[in-house]
Amino acid sequence: MDLVLASNNAKKLAELQALFAPLGVNLLTQGSLGIPEAEEPFETFVENALTKARHASRLSGLPALADDSGLAVEALAGAPGVLSARYATLFGQPKTDADNNRVLLEQMAGLSESHERGARFVCALVAVRSATDPEPLIAMGRWQGQILPALAGEAGFGYDPLMWIPALGRSVAQLSAAEKNAQSHRALAAADLVGQMREAWHLG
């Protein structure tokens, strides 16, 4: 079964393809089908993911899967939140992982205690059978950690080099792909959604 992924992020595609492999589905990026990115006007991960899934399904005629995820820093009242991918642009900087990480560190300057640097990765995954599906499947995943004072690790993407997982004693960017896929916010949401798709869509 083909599913359109409402994203053009190659690393996210690889992660999700592995996580949804038990269902035997094949993920196609919306870009490969000539589908432009949807607007993301909402303030919550769930609303944006649902909008992206319906958009991809409407323009492809296929079932769609959308991920809206980001970083929520407690000391910043949940920022960067749904603006995680373009956080640096709020401060007049380019939309790159490096700039996003640098701006985040600047915003957290002076917060040195571990309890002041609490944060979590949040992921909302939504699957729809069609653009007008009245029963979208929705799953949430959260991965708690702390923001490091400097980058650590080369793997992953986004804020992974700044997210320290105390239970593992490493940053997310210091984990292998297999380790990350076993316990990340996206892995938790995917495991939930896989179960829902088996039950409601009779897959796998």
UniProtKB/TrEMBL annotation:
Catalyses which reaction(s): XTP + H2O = XMP + diphosphate + H(+); dITP + H2O = dIMP + diphosphate + H(+); ITP + H2O = IMP + diphosphate + H(+)
PANTHER family: INOSINE TRIPHOSPHATE PYROPHOSPHATASE, INOSINE TRIPHOSPHATE PYROPHOSPHATASE/HAM1 PROTEIN
Gene3D superfamilies: 3.90.950.10
Name of this protein: dITP/XTP pyrophosphatase
Cofactor: Mg(2+)
Cofactor binding: number and manner: Binds 1 Mg(2+) ion per subunit.
Family of the protein in this entry: Belongs to the HAM1 NTPase family.
E.C. number: 3.6.1.66
Residues annotated to bind substrate: S7, N8, N9, A10, K11, K12, S69, F157, G158, Y159, D160, K180, H185, R186
Function per UniProt: Pyrophosphatase that catalyzes the hydrolysis of nucleoside triphosphates to their monophosphate derivatives, with a high preference for the non-canonical purine nucleotides XTP (xanthosine triphosphate), dITP (deoxyinosine triphosphate) and ITP. Seems to function as a house-cleaning enzyme that removes non-canonical purine nucleotides from the nucleotide pool, thus preventing their incorporation into DNA/RNA and avoiding chromosomal lesions.
The organism of origin for this protein: Roseateles oligotrophus
Active site positions, chain numbering: D68
Keywords: Hydrolase, Magnesium, Metal-binding, Nucleotide metabolism, Nucleotide-binding
Binding site for Mg(2+): E39, D68
Subunit and partners: Homodimer.
Taxonomic lineage of the native organism: Bacteria, Pseudomonadati, Pseudomonadota, Betaproteobacteria, Burkholderiales
